[in-house]
């Protein structure tokens, strides 16, 4: 069992609900990871409201960005193992099926990047940001030197997912809105 954010109709932030669900087996090409941090983005809000190009399956999941540690892999997955630190590389992900809002998320293996650099993993766990690039590239970014610093506008716990979306839609933030799990 895991707590997963779902919604059953298009609408405002109040349609988001935190539901206890039974986890199915991991699909053969997917990776299941424990979610520690989620980065909110405008596309997720648009999707929830019905202003996004993706189709819906009810109830629907939501979310593109997340990071933490692999729990299980599908039988066809190579390159990942339980215990690996990973982040989602936002691609053409079908949110209704592969949403990241929740305690765990399943994601196609080709939509994940392994975080072998301890600093990147620590920053992602603390702040939920994703560079959106494989580790071989992201480890060369000037984050360690302090030239690039993630700007976190506000952090919310998962239980406040509705409030986090209200804050996103208020346009008051400068920086990333993070939801911690």
Structural class: alpha+beta
CATH topology: Quinone Oxidoreductase, Chain A, domain 1
Could you give me the name of the CATH homologous superfamily? Medium-chain alcohol dehydrogenases, catalytic domain
The gross shape turns out to be: globular
For the biggest sheet, the summary is: 7 strands, mixed
- Give the SSE string: EEEHEEHEEHHEHE
User: How many angstroms separate the termini?
Assistant: 15 Å
Q: Helix coverage percent of residues?
A: 10-25%
CATH class: Alpha Beta
What does this structure look like?
The protein has about 180 residues and is an alpha+beta fold. The chain has a single domain, classed as Quinone Oxidoreductase, Chain A, domain 1 (Alpha-Beta Complex), CATH 3.90.180. The protein has 5 helices and 9 strands, in the order E-E-E-H-E-E-H-E-E-H-H-E-H-E. The strands form 2 sheets. Strands 3, 4, 5, 6, 7, 8 and 9 form a 7-stranded mixed beta sheet that branches. The protein has a two-stranded antiparallel ribbon with strand order 1-2. Helix 5 links the parallel strand 8 and strand 9. The protein is globular, with a radius of gyration of 16 Å. About 10% of the residues have low confidence.
